């Protein structure tokens, strides 16, 4: 532990800065005019957090604490500081240009965080813990997908160099059929065939297990996301994974995002000027949270393919000479505006499963309903079971079933 106390500062306002790591946090204290007062290192334990807060309070009235990584390594200290009634703001790590200029060390980063809190450059409140469960489920589900993809790629690579008899038997199969056939294998034959078939069976069984694991995690994730924000989950094109990503990025307290424009910038959906000479245009943003940007992209693609209003808009913009990238940029910006309203406004979502009992009472088949509305029977079935939402179709269905 190192410290450097300049003078008695017990009666003045001070600002704290925290450079967080897995095992330690480095705390720096500066005065309200930016003077360095002291810095020290503490363990990431309850006792260490208590000592760190006592260290800060010993130098004056703590106005604000800037913490690097409030949702990662600094999460424990952030919880302790907020429980103690202290104001905490989230600080971005210094960019590369600044680090090349002033260097890199724990004290330097901690003092930089304190200066960011003093100047107001860091002003965002940290995310609260209400989405911690959604974040955990989301990470686990994505991990299962990555592991399943790796296993599927392993199967494909093994079949490329497998003996001709094995390739002829399993190479023509695709998707689930191939996985099921390989998982049921009973390796036999000479040493080479036995080894190859054993190697193929192992990742195939892994794929089946990971698929079941992912389905269970997605179901739990859907339940959590729907309970946390039913309006967001009910929005057209927003599935469990997409809703979870948007909630994780915004945090459980989206009021920390003061304006809709700042929300769009956070998701990399704010238009960036790209004009030069006689050209006056904007381009897609390359900044912001790229996972959240990908979530907006998925929503845009779903709506471009199946939402009537979006398809009409896309056709109109195409006729005006815009490229697909430009149209997607415009859609993502509009979707960000819509999502911001869902995150900051409580939306009551009506149930959509009520048409099923009257349909069954009237002995009307799913096929008859689907033919009337010009959709697939699966669409009506998923709507009745609450597996997908389409409020316009649900309203029309309710009105029709009462007179059918």
UniProtKB/TrEMBL annotation:
- Please report the stretch or stretches of sequence annotated as the Transposase IS110-like N-terminal domain: 17-160
Residue span, Transposase IS116/IS110/IS902 C-terminal domain: 235-313
One Pfam family this sequence matches? Transposase_20
Q: Which InterPro entries match?
A: Transp_IS110-like_N (IPR002525), Transpos_IS110 (IPR047650), Transposase_20 (IPR003346)
Region spans: Disordered: 269-288
What is the official name of this protein in its record?
IS110 family transposase
Q: Which organism is it from?
A: Streptomyces albipurpureus
């Amino acid at each position: 532990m190192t410290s450097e106390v300049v003078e008695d500062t017990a009666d003045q306002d001070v600002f704290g800065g925290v450079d967080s790591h897995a095992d330690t946090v480095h705390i720096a204290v500066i005065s309200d005019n930016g003077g360095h007062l002291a810095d020290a290192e503490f363990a990431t334990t309850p006792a260490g957090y208590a000592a760190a807060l006592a260290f800060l309070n010993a130098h004056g009235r703590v106005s604000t604490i800037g913490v690097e990584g409030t949702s990662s390594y600094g999460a424990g200290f952030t919880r302790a500081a907020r429980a103690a009634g202290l104001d905490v703001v989230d600080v971005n790590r210094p960019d590369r240009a600044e680090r090349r200029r002033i260097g890199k060390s724990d004290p330097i980063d901690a003092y930089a965080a304190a200066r960011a809190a003093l100047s107001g450059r860091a002003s965002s409140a940290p995310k609260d813990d209400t989405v911690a469960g959604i974040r955990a489920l989301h990470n686990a589900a994505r991990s299962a997908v990555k592991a399943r993809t790796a296993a599927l790629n392993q199967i494909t690579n093994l079949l490329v160099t497998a003996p001709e008899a094995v390739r002829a038997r399993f190479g023509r199969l695709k998707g689930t059929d191939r996985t099921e056939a390989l998982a049921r294998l009973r390796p036999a034959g000479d040493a080479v065939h036995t080894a190859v078939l054993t190697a193929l069976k192992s990742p195939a069984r892994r794929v089946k297990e990971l698929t079941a694991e992912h389905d269970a995690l997605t179901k739990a994730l859907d339940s959590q996301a729907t309970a946390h924000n039913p309006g967001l989950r009910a929005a057209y094109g927003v599935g469990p994974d997409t809703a979870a990503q948007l909630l994780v990025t915004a945090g459980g307290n989206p009021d920390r995002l003061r304006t809709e424009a700042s929300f769009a910038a956070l998701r990399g959906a704010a238009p960036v000027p790209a004009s030069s000479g006689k050209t006056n245009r904007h381009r897609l943003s390359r900044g912001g949270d790229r996972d959240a940007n990908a979530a907006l992209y998925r929503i845009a693609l779903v709506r471009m393919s199946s939402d009537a209003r979006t398809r009409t808009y896309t056709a109109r913009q195409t006729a005006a000479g815009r490229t697909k990238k430009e149209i997607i940029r415009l859609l993502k910006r509009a979707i960000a505006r819509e999502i911001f309203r869902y995150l900051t406004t409580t939306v009551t979502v009506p149930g959509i499963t009520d048409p099923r009992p009257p349909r069954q009472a009237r002995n009307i088949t799913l096929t008859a309903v689907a033919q009337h509305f010009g959709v697939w029977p699966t669409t009506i079935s998923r709507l009745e079971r609450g597996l997908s939402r389409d409020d316009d179709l649900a309203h029309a269905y309710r009105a029709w079933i009462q007179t059918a």
